[in-house]
Amino acid sequence: MKSWRHDPPRMLDGGVWFYAVILVIPCLLCGGASRVTAQDGAPAAGEAGLGHWMTGAPAPTARTEVAVAALDGLIYVVGGFEQSSSWRSLQSSASTKVEVYDPVTNRWSSRPDLPMGLHHAGAAVLDGALYVVGGFTVSDDTLWNPSDRVFRFNPADETWTERAPLPTARGGLAVTTLQGKLYAVSGYDGQRNPAAVEVYHPARDQWTAAAPLPTPRDHLAAVAINETLYAIGGRVRLNYLENLSTVEAYDAASNQWIPKADMPTPRSGIAAGVVNGWAYVFGGESGEGTFHQNERYNARLNRWQTMAPMPTARHGLGAAAVAGHIYVLSGGPQPGGSYSRLNEIFIPPSPPRSMRSGRTPAAHIGSIMALLATFHEAGALPPGSSREADRLIHALIQSQSLFLNNRDPVVRDMFVSALSDKFGAKKAATLSQAFAVTGWTSETLEALVDHTTPRAMGEEPRLENLLREYNVTAADWAYVEQVFAKARGELLKQGKHVHAVFATQRASMPGARQNLR
């Protein structure tokens, strides 16, 4: 085993050596932080492979049969039905609202309304713009007037423009992008399920026809994985008593459809999203109720897997993937006309990773040892054999790994913001650069503790989700905050400053020379 030459630690008695030698060093030398050990509040080992769910801020308006898509990290919820005061007031039940969810801030905002009320439309993003395609409009005598209208939203100036109409007017269709084009797949035209698959070319503002869908249907989902489009599930002629499990794949190069393995649960009124090459399909309805099913499809293996069920069964929902999480929004908890403001977030299981090789840098080990010694000097360190000791060690190791290794913009932005708020931009830049070499310092930990303490972790669901991927719960991080705050306060009572104590302890720990460069 590699050894380090340094002077004996000044403040480490038997209790602290229990932490440092028995817990910290073996854990770090065995490959560092792990992302597979279940902790309180995190998925248990048997559940980790199924993913897990969290809840985001509810949408401002209760709706169903919405169109949903993600653009520039924001999630757009467009149109649909919203509850009117009277079923006689059909015109007001088709929504024009556009509400936007920011996963980073967990907040909603509004955008300019759709030019007309639409429900059962399709939405997709192409070339930095949001497209809303087809759908149904309402009139005095019916809710099901098929639309051929196509609207494009430019987020730069927040304007809607109308584009070339669909050749085949329809609602309940599926829309996705493939190879720089929009695909509008099947649906219902007021009398039947057209097999039409129409392709929009944005440069020409023109639609062309692709090979027809072998199994025409409505209320289906469509996703693109690599160079292939998949049409999933659906129903026949708006009848949820005739749900389908059919999956058909379109190859653009040959302009052919190929049958694939059926979805395990026949359903319609569904939503789908893609993460790490898996297509996840959520919800739906039938004559017996709504579905909580969450099933995923592996295109390479042509195989389905049942995942963690939705917390709230519903249909007419929308889904969009952002940064590896899928946001499942709105929809009706009961079949037919029901509405919700739901925002449930699915965190898929992480893809398998090879074991880390090599040893954790000595500086990263020494930094955690120095923090423990600092907490000990302040009298804030929990007893060595206690559950709280395990929790503190675990949270310090795992959170250090998160902030060192994870490149998610939420992590980067929070880290830099915390340092800037505490120390100003210039020192923050220096500390941020040094962190990659040193790991935790009392200053970086203090900045993050002070940044997160005033905020409920639920206000930042993306961060909470990322911590959970490293097996640190909100309660674990709150315990780090508690111990640090206690140590800082107790040292002040002794006339000492936490950073000065840390610097003294750090000088005698592994990697001290590297830390001081």
Walk me through the structure:
This protein is of the alpha+beta class and 517 residues long. The protein contains 11 helices and 32 strands. The chain has a 4-stranded antiparallel sheet with strand order 1-32-31-30, with no helix packed on it. The protein has a 4-stranded antiparallel sheet with strand order 3-4-6-7, with no helix packed on it. A 4-stranded antiparallel sheet has the order 8-9-12-13, with no helix packed on it. β20 and β21 form a beta hairpin. α3 crosses α9 and α4 crosses α9. The chain starts with 13 loop residues before the first helix and ends with a helix. The N terminus is likely disordered.
